[in-house]
Amino acid sequence: TLAMPSFAQDIKVLYDEAELPKFTLPDPLVAQDGTKITTREAWEKIRRPELLQLFETDVYGKAPAAPPIASRVISEREVFGGKATERQVRIFLTGKEDGPYADLILFLPKSDKPVPVVTALNFKGNHSLSDDPTIPLPQGWMRNIAADGIKNHTATEESRGAAKSRWPLERILDRGYAVATAYYGDIDPDFDDDFQNGIHAAFKKEGQAKPAADEWGSIAGWAFGLSRIADYLEQQDAIDHERMIVMGHSRLGKTSLWAGATDTRFDLVISNNSGCGGAALSRRRFGESVRRINTSFPHWFCDNFLKYNDNEDACPVDQHELIALIAPRPVLICSAQEDQWADPHGEFLSGLYADPVYRLLGTDGLAATEMPPLDKLINSRIGYRIRPGKHDVTPSDWEAYLDFADKQLGGK
Ligand code: GCU
Question: 268-272 and 239-249: which strand pairing?
Fold first, then answer.
């Protein structure tokens, strides 16, 4: 974990439902001017664009329009005894070969039909997914993790395979899904540097020192990167373009939700342990609060989000409306019992309060009104699961993701 500024440690953390403040959530089906939204058309024409804009200006910040990407295949080979292809592709995020790039690694199961794909950024570099010595180490900034041999913010050979337990690749491929992933730091290094590097610097306007208060923070930057990966995947005949999934864990779970909200090419969205600024309702202030997250990670959201430190009720949106922005596409919210910091109950409630929007659009919503028992996947259009254990991605999480995707995207 990152060192916390000492003043952040002083912010009181609520872990007791009885201590939570009373609050009223904004109604996803009432427009800002008070109009009740009662038809699909009014949702699509009025309320959805309005909510998207509110999340852009007040929470994640607006990303620039994307130029067409450029890409170059770096290598391709067979893996897992010939069951799959591993392709490494450099994606030039600004469309120019002298601009920032993300190195995508795409694992494709052998198939005579296009295959569904799970797109997810990774925390520790593509080389952390397997022991394969040919995968290049990221060249940019990495979080120091002594156990993985990462010192001076630089990846080393020692970190090969460090994230294998989070990526049961062979099993995912055996279930018929491709995996597309890139190191999130290729898109924006995850530290507060006033946006001097990564994707933000590349898109800075003339004379602008840093993004304006309503312009993109790091989460919106990473989501922009996910959309550029989608650009590439859309060009591939081996990929089923109707079954493109975006998944993310933790800060990257916040990111996958925002990517799913802003980019409807993602047909299914999964957030794992995404917590504050992800699936958890901000107004509950349970576990990590808005003030706490803005203090520890000032670069994740746009500067306008600072207005809601200890002032969540003033925010025009809450996170159930982020889930609603994904409607009517399937969304799966996953929690972990020991990850109270991420407020599992608040994550569940976001799904529940997004339900009326899904129903308006003619799908089932969340087929539960109370938290399910541990390990029971609620496999409705809004899905939910809580498993025992801590903040992490486990093989059993992947089984749940793919069970959900099999059902919600129509299986093979
Ligand atoms: C911290 C942070 C969370 C975040 C998590 C992660 O715990 O407070 O908001 O989700 O890091 O990304 O691992």
Answer: parallel
Cα–Cα dist 26/393, whole Å: 31
Residues facing residue 104 across a β-bridge: 89, 182
Packing angle of the helix pair 48-55, 251-262 (nearest 10 deg): 140
CA of 48 to the centre of ligand 1 (A): 28
Q: Residue 103 in contact with residue 75, Cβ under 8 Å?
A: no
Most informative mutation of 251, 273, 291, 343 for ligand 1 (most atoms within 8 A of CB): 251
Gap from CA of 84 to ligand 1 centroid (Å): 33
The reported pTM is: 0.97
pLDDT 10s digits, 173-186: 999 999 999 999 99
Q: Pocket residues for ligand 1 (CB within 6 Å)?
A: 250-251, 275-276, 288, 293, 296, 341
Atom of ligand 1 nearest to the CA of 251: 12
ipTM of predicted assembly, 2 dp: 0.97
